[in-house]
Amino acid sequence: MAVMMQAFYWDAPKHEKKEGEWWNFIAEKVEDLGKAGFNALWLPPVSKASDHTSVGYDPYDYFDLGDFDQKGGVKTLYGNRAELEALIAKAHKNGIGLYADMVINHNSGADEEEVNPLDGQKRWTKFNPKSGKFPRDWNCFHPSRYEQVMIEGENFAGFPHLCHRNPVVYTAMFEYARFLIEELGFDGFRFDFVKGFGAWMIGLLSKYRYVKDGKDFAPYVVGEMWSGSEDIDGWLDRVNKITDNQIAAFDFPLRYKLKDVCDKPNYDLRNLTDGGAVVMKRPMNAATFVDNHDMGDNAIINDKMMAYSFIMVHEGYPSIFWYDYYNNELARPLTPNGIDALVIAHHKYAGGDSQILHADPDLYIMQRVGFKDDSVDQPGLIYVLNNLGDKWSGTSVKTKWPNQKFAPIAWDGHDTAHPDERTTDAEGNSEFPAPPRGFAIYAPV
Description:
Elements: E1 4-6, H1 12-15, H2 22-36, E2 40-42, E3 48-49, E4 59-61, H3 81-93, E5 97-102, E6 112-115, E7 122-126, H4 167-184, E8 188-191, H5 199-207, E9 210-212, E10 215-217, E11 220-223, H6 229-240, E12 248-250, H7 252-263, H8 278-281, E13 286-289, H9 304-313, E14 317-321, H10 322-327, H11 339-348, E15 354-360, E16 363-368, E17 371-372, E18 377-378, E19 381-386, E20 393-398, E21 405-412, E22 422-423, E23 429-434, E24 438-444
Helix pairs in contact: 2-3, 5-6, 7-9, 9-11
Organism: Tunturiibacter gelidiferens
Binding site for Ca(2+) 1: 105
Region (Disordered): 412-433
């Protein structure tokens, strides 16, 4: 599987003093990220929002990428179209794909208020974007003549929500998606706040026959269904009925378990085995993560490498948060104790099914059984997570490998001493320890 990076955090250009220059700033990092093993970057919303300094989750002009003087300025918070295209080209040159953040429901920054004749309510729904594309009025939003219900999903922050059943809206969303893939060169979509509109819309946008380099192209698609396991399951079922593509969802249930692992003393590690996470039930549909731009005060505070180690050795498509990698300095290149070492372990060894070998309140041990075909050779690994805060811990487990030597390839915790090599007996048994409040990954050698 691959590894993506969320290449921003909330107000990142303002905090980094890169307002209007974020695309250029990311481009400076692209070569190193490619060498580190990142396969894709998830970018923030590219379109002009209600203000040119907005982070972009309140879209105004979908087709203004920072080139029209409106909403207080020309560039977006992140830059302009030429800079975005240069970033995409450089990323592709370094083997990195790009995912666009799709905010296709709640709009903001309208130019006029209008009375909606269906309910007599006055709302900001008249949009006259300077790009000249997708002007809209009250009938493009809920309530609309094209739908009997007020809205298909939840409202967000009181913003007017687009009615995708209106042919004008429906057509504009297809044109926007096509523009991102075919003209700008994006490779996939992350859909924001999918609770706010019908799953059918994502299914159809995914199913559209995009063409890149003269060939049919199927984008990677992941949705932000910020909810519990049952809601995410239901949404995945609905959206995947509409398309042959394997639509994914961010694994919020796993993320909250991992926060408890890191931030709650004496958290029972057996909770990681109960099947509540998306990755445990439908790994091909899981995009796993540790933190993102929305977490704010709910961000993980302690021992965050424990969480990153978990998502990087299990199935699913792991996402690394820019703020953790750079600002929290968890990349730790050229060491066995950081994210860079986990990326290597993910690519080189983490293949095949995950099999839990041991789980008690303080110790979790898992093996990836390995996978090999004509293009991939991942021999598997042993992963140990230790919740005890004061000592190394491990236990003997029966692995799939008899008479096999294992070397530690990545580890971290409250003691970063080098773990010893291990060798299994004729039945595949050996003891595998990990540092206090930490992890260790062992690979067959």
